[in-house]
Amino acid sequence: MQAIWNNKVIAESNETIDTEGNHYFPVESVNKNYLVESEHTSFCPWKGKASYFSLLVDGKLNTNAVWYYPETKDAAKEIEGRLAFWNGVTVK
What we know:
Layout (H helix, E strand, L loop, with lengths): L1 E4 L2 E5 L4 E3 L2 E3 L10 E10 L3 E10 L2 E9 L14 E3 L4 E2 L1
Antiparallel strand pairs: 1-2, 1-9, 3-4, 5-6, 6-7, 7-8
């Protein structure tokens, strides 16, 4: 699987976990040079509190396009610390 935005591969892995139609990538498979810290958070009743990164690629910013769960509830432990993408990021 690859996560692509602004014609750049942001992440690539054969070991993603598909949860609710979203592929969660291992953190080591993500190019951290494209990640920008975000203060945005959200909450999922069965996974827990999500944190976000924005993407900055060739001067273009995609706000809060990456999310992850630093600490999940028990039901979602398999995706804890993994990163998922949305907001125009192509995952294929």
